[in-house]
Design a protein that fits this description.
The protein is mainly alpha-helical. The protein is 68% helix and 5% strand. It is built from 14 helices and 5 strands. The chain has a 5-stranded parallel sheet with strand order 2-1-3-4-5, with helices on both faces. The longest helix is centred in the middle third of the chain and has 85 residues. The chain is elongated. About 8% of the residues have low confidence.
Amino acid sequence: MWDIPARFHCPIIGTCLHVGELRELARKIGCPRHAGLSDYEIHVSYVTSAESKNQLSVAAQKLLERKHAKELRRFATLKTPAELQRVWDEQLAEGQVPGAFWALMTHPRADNMTRDRAYEAVHMLSHQVGAGLNADTKRLTEARKALQTLRQDCAADAARSLRKLAAREARIEQLQQQLEEANGAVEALQQAQLRILELESGDQLRELRAQINAMQSEALEQARRRKTAEAQADALRQQLDRAQTRIHALSEQLSERSASCAALEQVVNHLDLGSDTCCGKDCSQCPRREERRLDLGGRRILCVGGRGSLATRYRELVKRCNGELVRHDGGLEQSSQRLEALLASADAVVCPADNVSHDAYLRAKRFCKRTDKPCLLLERSGIDTFVRALADLAEHPQGAMSGVQTV
């Protein structure tokens, strides 16, 4: 690994090994300091150690050889860069990237052009992951609309079910009344049977028996109808219970989705970066009053890295919060000597970890730990994350916050 150009170490470590494997490897070889590091810091430590032969890089080398032994054996049979390129393209198309990438980068027949093409392919794959976030946001919006529609449909179904259930309950009550009447008729029938024994005329006896049979048949029919109505009522009650359960589940899902959307909308609505003009003299009526609560007390904030396209917005935000922003591009073009000078002159440091070089990231972190200067390490370089960092600094007056923190 240490014989490969240093610019390939980052994609090799990030693509061919999982961060969990890196942590387990550090534990096995006796590196307890890695236990408290973030995933990004674990990745950076292995990338840095890969530049030379040492305990950590040797252990990572052995793990890569064991994990991707199958791909290494396959690539070992290839003799020319053209063959390597062909097999790499096949593995890339099948999604078998980690093992093939390691085997290609360490193959003795791989030339610079072949390695560069593989590096470019892996690099673009990482961008495609970020591009999927827009599709997720669109699906979330569509799901929210669909959930609202389902909720309305369920409410309508529940209302119809309640109406049907009320009608069935009324029918059941009517049948119960009829049953009571039938029970009264049975009692009257029993009394009539007793009277039959006293009757002497055969015609009257036959007539009474016919009446009795008719009344018994009516009573049986009424009982059958009552059971049918009760069964229908039970089925409707079960349907209503299922509908109410579904409504409850959908309501919980809607609440969770609404809370997530409200959190995102609050961050977006909190910042109006299109204009820095006050709406009037009376600040109590200003719609930007909430934003003006963030007061940095005139402190000088150093931003190490971050997206260059957002640099102007970073600067406007800090200015509106009564502060001054200076920025270092994180090692892309500006020198490390300038970074040291800016670190020394700043009151606090903000470092977006997703747009900064490894060297600038580690320099800023070590400097702030050594000087006990406030340093906020941001997981992302977006405006919302940057605003949360400014809010943390504004909540702590100068001198009240120190050391390195992650936002």
